[in-house]
From TrEMBL:
Gene3D superfamilies: 1.20.5.1300, Nitrogenase molybdenum iron protein domain (3.40.50.1980). NCBIfam families: hisD. Substrate binds at residues 229, 251, 254, 320, 353, 407, 412. Binds 1 zinc ion per subunit. It comes from the Bacteria. InterPro entries: Ald_DH/histidinol_DH, Histidinol_DH_CS, Histidinol_DH_monofunct, Hstdl_DH. Belongs to the histidinol dehydrogenase family. Transmembrane segments: none annotated. It catalyses: L-histidinol + 2 NAD(+) + H2O = L-histidine + 2 NADH + 3 H(+). This is Histidinol dehydrogenase. Zn(2+) binds at residues 251, 254, 353, 412.
Length: 424
């Protein structure tokens, strides 16, 4: 990892990934073929991209029960505890419908309604992410979504990973399909013979999944365009170099384009972490991925003081932020832009990834400047409610009609005045 003085550092904000022209064209072609050919397209693309020739798309109850036999009971117990932590945290986010009554009898309010259906994308194929199942499905269940559909690319033997299937069952998913990539997103958005369309698509995926979500937005809602994982560690000389290095590598091992950054007031810590990262890389099973990430997108920024360090963090607006300084609570109050914030030595980022209960589907590429982690609001919609009283109408009708005519909308004004004439 290179060490920079923050004032001499190269540009530190990453732009949202939009893919190459070839990737975008490929995604558009896939979407159009799925729209016109339905299930046949899904079978064909699964054979082409995943190397799997499927007989059916939907996972059966028999497959789910077989998955339980393959997964260790201790792991199932741990997963259930994690699920409950996630449920309890997200229940705190629930909002209720409300009404307020004014003195003239008018009632104004907001009606909160869960979405009818949600599609959950879970990455798969060569890796298994049961944690992503919990993070996307449990909040939907808490919000009251009736139909939750999960899609995930199959393994080479045509099955889904047993741990993913167990997580889906434990979360409450009743529809699971073995399909991934842009074709899965298209199926969720437009529907096929086997997969009825949904109202919203959530969950992380590769660049093709991200581009497909971008393209179908408007036909359905989406949660966000997720990029490669990011972590920023804000630390002073009280932090332990081996722990900081381990946390940086926890994100570097995700993807060669993941970003791991240390922002510190201590040159001694910077140099010690630089050395620790190199030593720990040598023993990582995913060393090749992590090393490319560290070499290309890793950095250490040394600042003159803590205030400058906080400015750097807010400029980065990272997906994950760890605060390892003496004045941690004081720093927390000054952080404006971060997807998830982990405060103190024992709040290592993987605590949030798996177990604490907070959501790990987070804004990336600096979008934490204006967006939030996946949450209950993503699974509910709000309708405004107007119950206008006769007294309020008579009092304000002429004002409303005048306002409408100021915009050149005569029919609006007449709609109001028609009621006045009837009263007279």
């Amino acid at each position: 990892m290179k060490i920079y003085k923050s004032t001499e550092a190269p540009s530190i904000r990453r732009s949202v990934e939009i893919g190459t022209l070839e990737q975008r064209k490929a995604v558009l072609d896939i979407i159009e073929i799925v729209k016109t050919s339905g299930d046949d397209a899904l079978f064909a693309f699964t054979k082409k991209f995943d190397g799997v020739e499927l007989e059916k798309l939907k996972v059966t109850e028999t497959e789910i029960q077989a998955a339980y036999e393959e997964v260790d009971d201790e792991l199932i117990s741990i997963m259930r505890e994690a699920r409950e932590n996630i449920r309890v945290y997200h229940e705190k986010q629930l909002k209720n419908s409300w009404m307020m009554t004014q003195s003239n009898g008018t009632m104004l309010g907001q009606k909160v309604t869960p979405l009818d259906s949600v599609g959950v994308y879970v990455p798969g194929g060569t890796a298994a992410y049961p944690s992503s199942v919990f993070m996307t499905v449990v909040p939907a269940v808490v919000a009251g979504v009736e139909r939750i559909v999960m899609v995930s690319p199959p393994q080479k033997d045509g099955t889904l990973d047993p741990v993913v299937l167990v997580a889906a069952k434990e979360s409450g998913v009743k529809e699971i399909y073995k399909v991934g990539g842009a074709q899965a997103v298209a199926a969720l958005a437009y529907g096929t013979e086997s997969i009825p369309p949904v109202d919203k698509i959530v969950g992380p995926g590769n660049i093709y999944v991200a581009l497909a979500k971008r393209e179908v937005f408007g036909v359905v809602d989406i949660d966000m365009i997720a990029g490669p994982s990011e972590i920023v560690v804000l630390a002073d000389d009280t932090a332990k170099p081996h722990e900081v290095a381990a946390d940086l590598l926890s994100q570097a091992e995700h993807d060669p384009r993941s970003s791991s950054v240390l922002v510190t007031t201590s040159i001694q810590l910077a140099e010690a972490v630089q050395q620790e990262v190199e030593e720990q890389l040598k023993t990582l099973p995913r060393e090749e991925i992590a090393r490319e990430s560290i070499d290309e997108f890793g950095a250490i920024y040394v600042t003159e003081n803590l205030e400058e360090a906080i400015e750097v963090v807010n400029e980065l607006a990272p997906e994950h932020l760890e605060i390892m300084v003496k004045q941690a609570q004081e720093c927390l109050a000054k952080i404006k832009h971060a997807g998830a914030i982990f405060v103190g030595r024992y709040s290592s980022e993987p605590v949030g990834d798996y177990f604490a209960g907070t959501n790990h589907v987070l804004p990336t590429n600096g979008t934490a400047r204006f967006s939030s982690p996946l949450n209950i609001d993503d699974y509910q919609k709000k309708s405004s409610v107007v119950i206008y009283s006769e007294e309020a109408f008579k009092q304000n009708a002429n004002k409303i009609a005048t306002f409408a005519r100021s915009e050149g909308l005569e029919a609006h004004a007449r709609a109001i005045e028609s009621r006045l004439k009837e009263e007279q």
